[in-house]
Amino acid sequence: MQIKAPRGTCDILPSDAAKWNAVETIMREKAALFGFHEVRTPIFEHTELFQRGVGETTDIVSKEMYTFDDRGGRSITLRPEGTASCVRSFVEHSLFSGALPVKWFYMGPMFRYDRPQAGRFRQFHQFGVEAFGSNSPYLDAEVITLMVEIVQALGIETYELHLNSVGCPTCRQHYREKLIEFLKPMEKQLCKDCQERLYKNPLRVLDCKVPTCQEAIQGFPVMADYLCDACRIHYTAVQEALAINQIRYIQDHQLVRGLDYYTNTAFEILLPDLGAQSAVGGGGRYNGLIQEIGGPNMPGIGFALGIERLLLAREASGTAMETEKSLDVFVALQRADYRSIALEIVNELRKKQFSADKDYQDRSMKAQMKYAGKIGARVVLIIGDEEVVSGQFTLRNMGTGEQVRVGKNEMVQTLNEMLHAR
């Protein structure tokens, strides 16, 4: 019986890897321009990290995590998101005692048990940034600007940036009480999940996409009316900084994000062309999370972008997609006796930075030429009886059919001319 990849996962084949590499390169380069440095954290962590960091009332922790006991009886979870792991690393290595802010970016697979659909997998990939140690609203604006510039650099022109403030624990508590008071009469109209959220985490009701819940919350009190003076001043400064950066946004009173650790600024980027899965990324400030995970009372802010959805969006927008790089030179040999010559030439070409390969199947010359065409080789270097006797090797341009004879000393220059000719 054939074994297939688990549901909700997919193979990234070489034909698609070029697209991934291009997107990842743009992300790395943009992050570096903004002063962010790469961090790589483990794919699995102690389960407690996500219970404390992400929040036990979230869908992620209560329904979606891949959790298991290891051989030592420890509860381990495949990371469902990147922020908690980055904060754990920041605290564990006492980086809070060094130069601040600390600015990191990360990239890699995340895991959530969810219903697979277009752009949503059980193993999915995210790019994210985290900045620790500063509560400046101008840092909020910088992080948001970076996210927008990445989307723009990917050639995606149709997007929406949604923005809101979810306040601090003090003003949010007052708002929470008002929201429960408003929602309580409509409790029976809410879906089962929102009925459970109502008293545990009522802000999550605003984020529910079930139509009956959306109808029930019409006219809900908005967080902006309950912000304390400090939160209002902070949010106003973020908006002013975004205006200076010429970043357009939509004030979205229903934007609360799905994780418990968010405070103050929350934001999300939507791509309407993707339909139901239009949210490709988002983030916000999490000023209590570092302390919750065992560090000092220190602010933080970050975002994450879903790479699969960005790839879908690039394709939907008509952006030219990168293709797998073709082989520069394929070395074809007329006789098995010439294997050592072919091996020597292949190695020399690689040292000169040409991508090169040779036949390993003992094919006929005709079959080798056919194979070179299939793999997209741009030039075939032929080693036959005449070539060995004369020391002049035949180079065939597979695009034009042109053939030239060159000695070893002229080979590099001739190949460069053939490969870079317009």
Note down, in words, how this protein is organized:
With 422 residues, this protein is α+β, with helices and mostly antiparallel strands. The protein has 2 domains: 14-168 and 228-316, BirA Bifunctional Protein, domain 2, CATH 3.30.930.10; 329-420, Rossmann fold, CATH 3.40.50. 39% of the residues lie in helices and 20% in strands. A hairpin with a 5-residue loop joins strand 3 and strand 4. Helix 1 runs antiparallel to helix 5 (137-153) and helix 5 (137-153) packs parallel to helix 10 (229-244). It starts with 13 loop residues before the first helix and ends with a helix. The mean pLDDT is 91.
Please outline the helices and strands.
Blueprint (H helix, E strand, L loop, with lengths): L13 H20 L3 E2 L5 E3 H7 L5 H6 L2 E3 L5 E4 L4 H10 L9 E10 L11 E10 L4 H17 L6 E6 L3 H15 L8 H9 L2 H4 L4 H6 L12 H16 L5 E2 L11 E8 L8 E7 L3 H4 L7 E7 H10 L12 E5 L5 H13 L4 E3 L6 H10 L4 E5 L1 H6 L2 E5 L5 E4 L1 H13 L2
Helix pairs in contact: 1-5, 5-10
- Count of beta strands: 16
Kindly report the name of the CATH homologous superfamily of the largest domain: Bira Bifunctional Protein, Domain 2
Mean pLDDT over the residues: 91
**Share of helical residues:** 25-40%
Profile the largest sheet: 8 strands, mixed
Low-confidence stretches: none
Work out the helix count: 16
> For this structure, what is the CATH class of the largest domain?
Alpha Beta
* SS class: alpha+beta
CATH architecture of the largest domain: 2-Layer Sandwich
